[in-house]
Amino acid sequence: MIDLIIIGGGCAGCSAAMTARQRNLNVLVLYAGDGALGKARRIDNYPGLPEVNGPDMLKVLRGQAEALGAEFKRQLVQKVLPMGNSFSVLAGNDLYEAGAIILALGTSRVNPLPGEEELLGQGVSYCATCDGMFYRGKHMLVVAGGEEAVEEANYLSELGRVSYFIEKPHNTAGLAEGIELIKEKPLSFEQDGQEMLLTTNAGRHRADGAFVLRPAVAMTQLLPEVQAEKGAIIVDKDLMTSVPGVFAAGDILGAPLQAPKAVGEGNIAAISAASYLRALKG
Amino acid sequence: MIDLIIIGGGCAGCSAAMTARQRNLNVLVLYAGDGALGKARRIDNYPGLPEVNGPDMLKVLRGQAEALGAEFKRQLVQKVLPMGNSFSVLAGNDLYEAGAIILALGTSRVNPLPGEEELLGQGVSYCATCDGMFYRGKHMLVVAGGEEAVEEANYLSELGRVSYFIEKPHNTAGLAEGIELIKEKPLSFEQDGQEMLLTTNAGRHRADGAFVLRPAVAMTQLLPEVQAEKGAIIVDKDLMTSVPGVFAAGDILGAPLQAPKAVGEGNIAAISAASYLRALKG
User: Fewest beta carbons less than 10 Å away: which of A8, A78, B118, B267?
Assistant: First the structure.
């Protein structure tokens, strides 16, 4: 079992990873992309790194956390399941078990389409590598929220027929031949017998199944037990959420959306997680 | 008038100074010494500065804040007086006026001696350069809390006779000839007519006046209006204290006493101070 899984590899996640390593926890950081920091052109107020750009800062922070012994994997976490005194974490095709969790997902907000969450596991899937095989030789709709979806759609197109819808603008240059790119805005999902119906701004599309491939998962899907208010996760002064053993840090806690604040909160969350794990072991 | 005076030049103070400069405030940082960071041998969990020692980190942070336009002065702040929509700040012989204050004094706790605060300004002084002249040709007791007191006591010895008592162990090698070093533990002050009485563990000492020269001032003396609980200043989520316009960040807010946390809180306090000042001008 892993001591601590940190979801998110930005300022808050890297800072938490360093402090957790210092407290001698074994640490896995799962991150889906480079987030807001990866897009920052210049940060002027981060103490210790004058006039740094986002990608450079990310590189420095990840390198430092890795040098301290934290493991980083680029995998989208789809589900965190509280299991008594531990957590099961589903990421891609892998299942991890951890004693504590730090949510450091940043600002990536996901607004599920109407019908999407209700039909999850009944025709709608978030994971091409997990569920693609069920649609061998069939027709699949892909609702794509970012560039990461291109590779997954290409994989699905080896199994069956794929229609690709763009939810948020991204580069689709790498899409495999044979994938049908439909330039309509996806609006909602319905079920019709064994088939999935996707309504767009221009009509309706019918298929055997649908994959929603975004670079992030809605918190209501990831860990619905965690309470939030106005889009910000609710925490106590130790940054523990409403779920014991689950902590949160950084932009996911709300304004100000700033690198130094995220770093400070990652530090606090890791110390709290270490205390929590120590208390568990008695 | 200065927009923002930050009291303390460690992690929290420097971080606050950088963010405040970014928000275009003019910023004066008043600091009495190098605090806890100045003594740290190695910090392993500060994102961006791997395996840094305290003095090096302090140098990097101050340099960066100065490069952004913050002014640093080494002066012990003795008093902050709320004056309606601004604050008067007494430091050494200088009086400043500021729109907002950030308290980032670190962990330096001061326990005044019995009688000390009651007799302040009536025989007890915290400032040799301010009040020394009143004791020309007279006998002064110095209660010294750190090495900084040596130079001030030397100055007093040019004016009159000085007896030097050590409250906390420090290097007294630089004490001027003629200063009487009395190796007794100072315990309490009393007044006897025009004279000051200092009781020690070994007896009583009588003089015309007393100087208490510590590297820090008790919060009850500095800004008694600020509420605290168990030694930590009470703040809201924007890190504003019970006094509107006075914010706090870093170790002064309590555990964990960590550089990344202090940096994060300095960032938040500066943003809150900027909002507060903007609303005032509103």
Answer: B118
Residue A169 domain flag:
yes
Considering the domain boundaries, does residue A224 fall inside one? yes
Which residues have CB under 8 Å from B28's CB, separation 6+? B2, B4, B5, B6, B70, B71, B72, B73, B96, B98
Specify the residue for token string 């309490």.
Answer: B188
Same domain for A182 and A271, yes or no, is: no
Contacts B65 to A, Cβ<8 Å: 47
Q: Do B260 and A264 touch (CB under 8 A)?
A: yes
The answer to whether residue A117 is domain-embedded is no
Say whether both B22 and B48 belong to one domain: yes
Q: Which residues contact B274 (CB under 8 A, 6 or more apart)?
A: B19, B20, B23, B25
User: Do residue B232 and residue B168 come from a single domain?
Assistant: no
Taking the C-alpha atoms of residue A74 and residue A54, their distance in angstroms, rounded to an integer, is 18
H or E segment to which residue B272 belongs: helix B259-281
pLDDT digits (tens, 9 = 90+) for A185-223: 999 999 999 999 999 999 999 999 999 998 888 887 889
Q: Cα–Cα–Cα angle for A10, A16, A20, nearest 5°?
A: 145
Q: How far lies B216's CA from each of A231, B57, B114, B174, in Å?
A: 42, 22, 17, 21
Q: How many CA atoms lie within 13 A of A65 on its CB side?
A: 35
**Strand (E) or helix (H) holding A87:** strand A87-91
**B101 in any annotated domain:** yes
Can you tell me the ipTM of this complex? 0.81
**Residues A141, A98 share a domain:** no
CB contact under 8 A, A22 and B11: no
Domain extent at residue A183: 124-213
Per the structure, how many domains does chain B have?
2
State the CB neighbour count (10 A cutoff) for residue B92: 16
B255 is written with which tokens? 């555990």
Other CB atoms within a 10 A radius of the CB of residue A280 amount to 13
Mutate to test the interface with B, among A45, A261, A263 (most CBs of B within 10 A): A45
Q: Computed from CA positions of residues A4, A8, A12, A14, in that sequence, does the dihedral angle turn out positive or negative?
A: positive
DSSP state of B221: H
Q: Do A44 and B18 touch (CB under 8 A)?
A: yes
Indicate the pTM of the whole model. 0.83
Strands A180-182 and A161-166: parallel
Question: What are the pLDDT digits (tens) for A34-72?
Answer: 888 888 899 999 999 999 999 999 999 999 999 999 999
CATH code of residue B198: 3.50.50.60
**Interchain CB contacts (distance < 8 Å): A and B:** 105
Other CB atoms within a 10 A radius of the CB of residue B66 amount to 16
Question: For residue A200, which amino acid is it?
Answer: T
